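Technical note accompanying the year-one report. For the benefit of new consortium partners, we illustrate the data format agreed upon in the data management plan: each record pairs a sequence with a structure-token string. No post-processing was applied to the example shown here.
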Amino acid sequence: MSVHIIDHPLVQHKLSIMRDKRTSTNKFRQSLQEISMLMGYEITKDFPLAYEEIETPLQKMNAPKVAGKKVVIAPILRAGLGMVDGLLSLIPSARVGHIGMYRDEETCLPVFYYYKMPANKDRMVILTDPMLATGGSACDAIARLKEDGFTNIRMMALVASPQGLKAVCDAHPDVDIYLAALDDDLNERKYILPGLGDAGDRIFGTK
């Protein structure tokens, strides 16, 4: 397992926009889509290439093309949906599954309510959720994917707490994790500090 902190200047700039409480819903949503696309370059950089003969306007050549990587983007609902369009702009042939989970506000534990994934289990799964807080939802989602037969799973989040990152690493050491930032801590309500607030509310304007 590897943890990748993507410190590209544009990723960090857009993350700062998203952290700012003054950022509008529209700008937050737009920034999330853009940062997801930028992080997508990193999460796909080891895709293998094959060569195919094509003809340019001037001559024939052996041109590199992505070989054999079939991808499923699997957002954890609802906030993970905000990362799908950015990834689809890079991988338009990807399938999109859905994993419905929410956090019980009293127990802070994840509650599973919906799961729909493609039948082909050979596909690589990119699990998306902007926040990796306690790690409970991510751990349960990964466990469900493995139970369903998926073996090649990567997780993409914007910000994580040390506690959440450790929980996922301990439970699923075979899953690579891609982050824009590893934050400082969790508060008493299990929100990431400094974080960016409730990502779902900020994406969909529900608070």
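Partners are asked to follow this layout when depositing records. The chain has a mean pLDDT of 93.
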